C-alpha cells in the first residue's frame, strides 16, 4: 500500500498527515501521540475515526501540525484522519459522515473592531 496524505483544518490549526500500513504508531511533529497530547480527551478525539472503524492498530500515521491551540489541533488531526480513511476505502465514508467526522468546523475567531474593547464588547457608554 502506498502512502496516503490528507489535510485537516480547525480554527487556525492545520494538520497534514501521511498514512501507511503499519503497527498503529501515531507520530506528531516527530513526537509520540502520548507526549504531544498529554490529556486523555485530546488523544480520544484524535483516535475517534480509527476507533469507529475498528482500525486502531492497522496504520502508521505521521502528522505535521502547525498553528492553533491544542484542542483545535486535535480536531484538525481528527478531520485529516477521517479524510485519509475515506481516500483508502469509499465504504468508510457513510459511518464517518454519520458521526460528523468529515465535516469541517468553519467557525473562526471574530476579529477585533476599532473603537471597541474586543470583537463585540464595547467601551462603557456614559450619557453625561
SSE inventory with pairings:
Blueprint: E1 4-10, E2 13-21, E3 26-28, E4 31-32, H1 33-36, H2 40-52, E5 59-66, H3 70-88, H4 93-99
What would you say the CATH architecture is? 2-Layer Sandwich
Which regions are unreliable across 5 or more consecutive residues at pLDDT < 50? none
The chain-level structural class is alpha+beta
Shape: elongated
Order of helices and strands: EEEEHHEHH
Q: Gyration radius, to the nearest Å?
A: 18 Å
Number of strands: 5
Roughly how much helix do the residues carry, as a percent range? 25-40%
Q: What strand order characterises the main sheet? A: 1-2-5-3-4
Mean pLDDT value: 94
Percent of residues in beta strands: 15-25%
Largest sheet: 5 strands, mixed
How is the CATH topology named?
A: Ribosomal Protein S5, domain 2
**End-to-end gap:** 73 Å
